[in-house]
Amino acid sequence: MTAITFYFSSLKNEIIKLKHTFALWLTAICALLIPLLFFIVYTIKWEGLIPEEGVNPWNQYANEQIMNSLPALVPLFIVLITSLIIQIEHKATAIKHLFALPIPKSSVYFGKLSIVIATVFATYAMYYGLILLNGNLLGGIRPQLNFSEFSPEYIFHTKILFRSFISVLGILAIQFWLSFRFKNFIIPLGIGMVLVIIGLIAARAPEAIYFPYSYSVISMNPLDEKTSDLSLFWWFPTVSIYSLIYFLVFSIAGFFDIKRINVK
Q: Which is more confidently placed, 109 or 94?
């Protein structure tokens, strides 16, 4: 069997194991929480949220959930989901067993990393899907809000969500390595939580461009008005490029570190 075959086999096994864990519930809860809160607020406080005539209600409703909530929500979710998925293996001493099998260690490590990336991507997809679903439900329940009279800015939202997703890949790789490196669940979880809080606080500092835990906030910053909507920079601003560099460095370095210590 080739390395690619082992990799896809590892992916299949990880998906099967994921079905029997709290990780799927955590993914669903994270995606549902903010949209549900907004839905409840708009349902109860709708009279004070009626937009002015001609104003698209989706702008405030969707943009606030994407640009104000995601920067804090997603990094915390990544810290939790990576710690949870890898801790399941540590608890069952399964990692040591997997690395003892006559299969490439890379297929095990990057197979698990791919699953974590997939759960984060699924969270983004469900999050936006719930925003759209709830907005349309509000249009039927409270027609005064005018949701049915306008359309969401799908292209703009896709760009923002894509930039946000790329911006957190650096955090993901770091937390994945920490979760693999330390058998104690509290260590990667504690380190991650502290760094996320620091990242949120320090995001406005110029030096934050070098701190990956601030990237989820920085990725929401508006671009220069002269920047074309269709330019590559819109999809890959500087912070996204730095995040990809962190992701590649820590993914590769993390694998060689884990391979060296053999996860005792």
A: 109
Cα-based torsion angle of the residue sequence 98, 102, 105, 108 in order, rounded to the nearest 10 degrees: -50
Q: Can you state the angle between helices 105-141 and 3-18, rounded to 10 degrees? A: 50
| Residue 190 buriedness (CB in 10 A; 0-12 / 13-18 / 19+) | middle
User: Rounded to an integer, what is the distance from CA 169 to the centroid of its chain?
Assistant: 8
Q: Which distant-in-sequence residues (6+ apart) come within 8 Å of 174 by Cβ?
A: 212, 246, 250
pLDDT confidence band for 8 (50 / 70 / 90) = confident
Report the alpha-carbon distance of residue 108 to residue 98 in Å, rounded.
7
DSSP state, 21? Answer: S
The whole-angstrom separation of Cα 223 and Cα 161 is: 15
DSSP string, 65-117: IIIIIHHHHHHHHHHHHHHHHHHHHHHTTHHHHHHHSSS-HHHHHHHHHHHHH
Angle between helices 154-167 and 70-91 (to 10 degrees): 50
Q: Write the burial class of residue 210 (CB in 10 Å: 0-12 exposed, 13-18 middle, 19+ buried).
A: exposed
**pLDDT, the chain, mean:** 84
Is pLDDT of 223 > 60? Answer: no
In one letter, which amino acid is 159? K
Q: What are the φ/ψ torsions at residue 54 (nearest 5 degrees)?
A: 85, -5
Q: List pLDDT tens digits, range 34-43.
A: 999 999 998 9
pLDDT tens-digit map of 147-172: 888 889 898 899 889 999 999 999 99
